[in-house]
Amino acid sequence: MKFHRTAALVASLALAGTASAITIDADYDHASLESFSVAGAGGRPGTTTYVDLVGRDNYYGNGQWRWLNFTASDVLGDNVVFRISDNFAGGGSKLNNHAMVYSYDGVNWDYFDNNQRSNGTYSFSIDGGFTQDEVQVAYAFPYSYGMSVAHTQEVLASPWATPTLSGDANGVIGMSPGGTDDLGRTVDPREIFAYRITDPATDSGRQQKLKVMVMSGLHAGETLGTHTYQGLIDFLISDDPVAAHLRQAAEFIAYPCANPDGRFAGNSRTTVENVGTDPNRLWHPDLYATHQDIRVQAEAMYLDITQTSADLSYFIDFHSTVPTGGDDFGFIPFDQGDHLSPFWQSLLAIQPNIQSSNSTGTSWYTTNHAEAFLGAEVDVTFETQFGFQRPLDYYHDMGRNFGLAFADSLGIPIDLIAGDANSDGVVDLVDLSILAANFDSFGTFEQGDFNVDGVVDLLDLSILAANFQPVSTPEPASFLLGLAALIAGTRQRVC
After folding, report:
1. Which of 26, 171, 356, 404 is the most exposed place for a label (fewest CB within 10 A)?
2. The last residue of a domain, from among 79, 114, 138
3. Do 389 and 438 belong together in one domain?
């Protein structure tokens, strides 16, 4: 669904005597651009089209822009140079090593070949011109509100995820307030989601699980944090045997898009309802009373943590930041020893480039709220840094490493291979024989229950087959014979 108002953000500028017009669209979910102009003989061989952009200032003041996201059409074969002022939020120097991204399908992204800052202008282009007629351009890998909705639906379709106590059957815990954005567009209220991930078979209440709460998307333009969040969630609902063990020992309460209006409207940092206020300074009942989207989530958290009796052990809020030196890092309290917690130490060992930064004071961040009102033992604001020109998979893989770190902190081996019952690093006939001995009965991973659903069955056999690693020429044939014999035996028992 589009905004209610479509203005000059969508326009075609046909240049006299040129072979084509360039169309710029920034009126869709998560798009952001104030205005643009086009100069140059676009479409003529050997010529260059210059597209001058004006970014939106919807928080920082003095015309400073940050989040940028738009689609350019009629660019096939054109040598296009995009230009924008380096009046960038955080300082123009933060663009020195930055590269913009582009995509022809909104899924596969590449960095622009040429990115440079000179004489107050930041420009970016690719070598050889665009190979398709339409291209999406962004400051960093986008993550729209619609992507959060689609991912939430995917998560809730998993057998390992359910709505939280505060949510309805679709995981909706409330509505954002909507409002009018800095461009005068009406932004409708949007659904706010939450869900809980764990293994319901071990959710009897007799066993206290490690309780973790995670969230993302509070600052609208900090998309790398949300990609990292998704990497964690995708791991938690996956068939990975480590994830299966982790679900038995831990529960995760998750809030995927904490600022739906700001994300949808293409804001850089804030909500639409309170565009001049940092939403990560309002997480106290006295402050969020007039901030509906924050109040909805805070009150949901109070209820959601009561579903089980365990205390909240960890709270993590995924963000992104302009380059600050160093590498991706977590704001984490040193004086309370949070940086020495088993999970954080495991994460540093698994992904050594992550750094720790001391978090001090109380400005009513989400982490202050988690500690003061949710009783979180360890709280982390995790910051991914723009400007490294890393592939998108890096952030998804880092999210997965968060999950591995939680598993490692609980003593779960993180090098498990699905189908490797005896943990010797190879899925072979020995593992098949273990599975056969326990087939059609209750069992553990070590007994052939590779999806850790409590039963050794054909699903586990299929997992073993998918990961089977023959070590000699005759073994594949023997393996197939073993499968046939096992299935035949199963049928005899069933008859």
Report:
1. 356
2. 138
3. no
Q: Is residue 5 part of a domain?
A: no
The position carrying tokens 């499968």 is: 483
Does residue 415 lie in a domain region? no
Q: Is 383 a catalytic residue?
A: yes
Q: Are 313 and 211 in contact (CB under 8 A)?
A: yes
376 and 295 housed in the same domain: yes
- Say which residue the tokens 């096939």 belong to: 76
Instruction: Return d(Cα 8, Cα 12) in angstroms, integer.
Output: 9
Angle at which helices 366-373 and 292-304 cross, to 10°: 40
Total domains in the chain come to 3
pLDDT digits (tens, 9 = 90+) for 330-378: 999 999 999 999 999 999 999 999 999 999 989 999 999 999 999 999 9
> Contact 267/67 with Cβ under 8 angstroms?
yes
What range defines the domain where residue 476 resides?
A: 429-494
pLDDT tier, 8 (very low <50, low <70, confident <90, very high otherwise): very low
Q: Which of 154, 273, 383, 475 is labelled catalytic?
A: 383
CB hemisphere CA count around 152 (13 angstroms): 29
Hunting for tokens 């964690």 — which residue is that?
Answer: 232
